[in-house]
Amino acid sequence: MTIPHICLLIVALLPFPWTMLAKGNKRYNNHAPRAYLAGLEGWRARAHAAHQNAWEALAMFTAAIVVAGQSGGSNPTVNALAMTFVVTRVLHGVLYVANLAALRSLVWFVGVACVVAIFFVSAH
Predict the structure, then answer these.
(1) How far apart are CA 4 and CA 36, in angstroms?
(2) Helix, strand, or coil here: 23?
(3) How many CB atoms are closer than 10 A to CB 34?
(4) Tens digits of per-residue pLDDT, 72-81?
């Protein structure tokens, strides 16, 4: 497995810790999970939002890794960008839960820039 593939696996698994934080409450109702999640407040609500955002980020990162693979696989630049993206996604979730919105947005932007850069690097 290449570094981009490992990074893709990590990014694919990242939504789960955030949802575990959001749902990790004795009041969690597995019979009506959407209603429970809709009523969340505070850090649990932000953990749920981080969960949703992690799924959204997975789509664009998957596309970038597929394009990189089609253009010849991983190279040091793609590897570095993919690893940086993973770091930004972990930080994004932590900052989301911590309610540090401005810093979270900056980290999100760096992550998006990594994905865009993977497309451009792969276009050689």
Answers:
(1) 36
(2) helix
(3) 8
(4) 867 999 999 9
Angle 65-69-74 from CA coordinates, rounded to 5°: 85
List domains and CATH numbers for the chain: 3-122 (1.20.120.550)
Two tokens, residue 42:
């505070």
CA dihedral 50, 79, 124, 119 (to 10 degrees): 0
* C-beta separation of 54 from 21 below 8 A: no
Our measurement of the distance from residue 108's CA atom to the centroid of its chain's CA atoms, rounded to an integer in Å, reads 9
Check pLDDT > 80 for residue 124: no
The residue type of 63 is A
Residues 85, 82: Cα–Cα separation, whole Å: 5
Residue among 82, 47, 90 nearest 66 (CA): 82
Helices (H), the chain: 3-13, 15-23, 33-38, 42-70, 76-97, 101-122
Q: Is the pTM of this model over 0.85?
A: yes
